[in-house]
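Record type: ASSEMBLY
Status: queued
Input:
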Amino acid sequence: MIRSVKHISVMSPYALAHLNAPMGKRLFSLSQNESLRPPSPLVAEAAANALRAGHLYPDPDWRELRLALSELHSISKEGILCGNGSMELIASLVQAFTDEQNAVLAPAHAYPFFRTATQMVRARFDVAPEKDRCVSVDALLAAVKPDTRIVFIANPGNPTSTRIPYSELVRLREGLSGDTLLVIDEAYGEFADHLNEHTFDLVERGDSVVLRTFSKAYGLAGMRVGWGLFPPNVAREIRKVMNPNNISAVGQAAAIAALADQAYMIETCEETTSLRDGLRQRLLDAGLDVPESFTNFVLLRMGSPLKARRVDEALRAEGVFLRPQGGAGLADCLRVTIGVADHLNIAGELLENWAKEGLL
Ligand SMILES: *Cc1c(COP(=O)(O)O)cnc(C)c1O
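Status: finished
Output:
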């Protein structure tokens, strides 16, 4: 029987959510950080139109999408690359800039795909401790080694839901040498854009990348469109390893249409953050530990891994699926995606009742 190469055979499969409702129960998925509502109605129309030219390969340079992104964010369109989800961009960065001779560094509770991408190229994966589940620039700088090629952070973080300000990102970049690339994954950036922090400016200073995605605030997780702003030398190298026809014509059309309806996206963010803060308050009132969130999810700190597992199982038995966080080093926590109000209420009420009964 044929075997995969050693560094692949020792990897565990990437853990996505297991979504099987118990017999006779409805499924309430609050597990994948998907948007609480479908994309703008303009998206379905644009995607249907794109299908008419489905016999043709998509634009390999994503010209219309890049132009729209550059205008919206006032950034250079030359520096923009689009990926089959931002996951493709993460994997391509690791592939182009690291190998078994060097290392990737990330905070202890970072997005688990940073590690997966690193294992795929046999580079070493180092972690720096966090402070109260928040990225610590001092700890990252202390953990940098001469062979550290990439530092990844998600800001705001997943699954931590915390963020660090722009001034800390600048301090991190300034503490790194020119041989280390800083990658800031802003998958939840739109939920913090009202804070007006100009992270894209950091890319112009050199040796930094900012990644974004259409999967969260724009509600296009199923279309697989991510993008980023890259310095020219980094963009040139990673294009060599990217799939040259990576985003379908339908995906590109969908992203362009979603971008054109900013009002809809902002409304999604407002609805999400208002439900999020409501749920958080309700759970705090019930005595649960729920840190402040800057994303479309909240983290429940259950106090111990055993408690987290029991609560997760009890919720699953009712058809409510949260996301356990052992993979990110937070086995005592459960992540709750902000879904529609009805679904959140079901989860909120169960947790509240169990707390009242002293079960939590
Ligand atoms: C959801 C998420 C992604 C994945 O984005 P895609 O564009 O769907 O591949 C990347 N990074 C973080 C931190 C995420 O939470």
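Annotation: The first helix runs from residue 6 to 9.
Annotation: DSSP finds 13 helices and twelve strands in the chain.
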